[in-house]
User: Which sequence fits this backbone?
């Protein structure tokens, strides 16, 4: 029987490489059954190493990890039977067709030929690849390959699905299609552990988010909770006459902290958010200051990333690309 009813439970997980590098350094996390958990961080932060441990592809140096209640070291075979995995670079034969690959995946999971064929057809329909089912994989686009990766991970109806940066390199339409499929899978009860470097992806899909940086979990919570911890909504105010910025700042100071933007105009940080628009415009009108435009900007997960790591996700990604191995 499983040792724990969590979908994923990680306690003090460490993975050390030769030379003393700690790719994963004391990670703790819990994912409830039926949850979509977004795992954020730039390349080199420890995301993929953590996923490789959770999917039994890599042994931890120390600590404990349970998936679907089974220990990833002591019960590795049981873990593999209960999870689906779609990694960034799946080694798929370009000369095989999508239908053949799904049939092979079914056979590897012990399905009889008829059952494997039926399941393959069902999944091809689900990921919208019926028209390409009998084409060789070498003719597939990037989006089609990622949808086939997803279908292959679902052949045996896994309880927990690991998606490692599933939309990297995809065009917006393909990314949106894969997002829809992930939501449908979750609606059916599948737990999804999603690693990504795209903050928008986590915000769109995840029930909860964990941010890893340099091997440590540096923040965790729902997207709204995380955004609420790091900042207030901002109003961007543009005046007809920018020479009156100083007067405008004095006129609206009671509504929050106001400053000038480097790109022009004013930015007002206010807990009232959009509710502050009407009183701000009224205050400026009473001061005889004409407003050209007012725009509300809510805190983002990139603001969270900046607050907890000291750099934006884009900056961290650029650093990881040029850092020595």
Assistant:
């Amino acid at each position: 029987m499983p040792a724990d009813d969590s979908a994923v439970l990680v306690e003090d997980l460490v993975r050390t490489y030769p030379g003393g590098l700690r790719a994963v350094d004391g990670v703790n996390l819990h994912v409830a059954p039926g949850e979509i958990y977004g795992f954020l961080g730039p390349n080199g932060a420890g995301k993929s190493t953590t996923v490789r441990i959770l999917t039994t592809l890599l042994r931890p140096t120390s600590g404990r990890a349970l998936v679907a209640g089974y220990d990833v070291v002591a019960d590795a075979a049981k873990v593999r039977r209960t999870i689906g995995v779609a990694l960034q670079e799946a080694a798929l034969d370009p000369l095989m067709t999508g239908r053949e690959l799904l049939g092979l995946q079914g056979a590897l999971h012990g399905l009889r030929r008829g059952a494997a064929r039926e399941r393959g057809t069902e999944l091809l329909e689900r990921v919208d690849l019926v028209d390409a089912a009998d084409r060789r994989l070498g003719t597939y686009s990037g989006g089609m390959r990622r949808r086939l990766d997803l279908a292959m991970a679902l052949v045996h109806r896994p309880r927990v699905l690991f998606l490692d940066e599933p939309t990297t390199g995809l065009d917006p339409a393909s990314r949106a299609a894969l997002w829809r499929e992930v939501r449908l899978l979750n609606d059916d009860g599948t737990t999804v552990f999603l690693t990504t470097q795209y903050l928008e992806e986590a915000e769109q899909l995840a029930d909860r988010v964990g941010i890893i940086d340099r091997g440590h979990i540096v923040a965790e919570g729902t997207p709204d909770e995380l955004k609420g911890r790091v900042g207030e909504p901002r109003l961007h105010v543009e005046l007809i006459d920018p020479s009156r910025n100083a007067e405008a700042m004095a006129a609206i100071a009671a509504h929050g902290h106001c400053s000038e933007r480097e790109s022009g105009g004013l930015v007002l940080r206010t807990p009232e958010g959009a509710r502050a628009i009407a009183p701000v415009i009224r205050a400026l009108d009473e001061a005889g200051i004409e407003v050209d435009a007012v725009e509300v900007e809510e805190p983002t997960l990139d603001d969270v990333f900046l607050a907890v790591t000291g750099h934006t996700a884009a900056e961290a990604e650029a650093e990881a690309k040029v850092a020595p191995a």
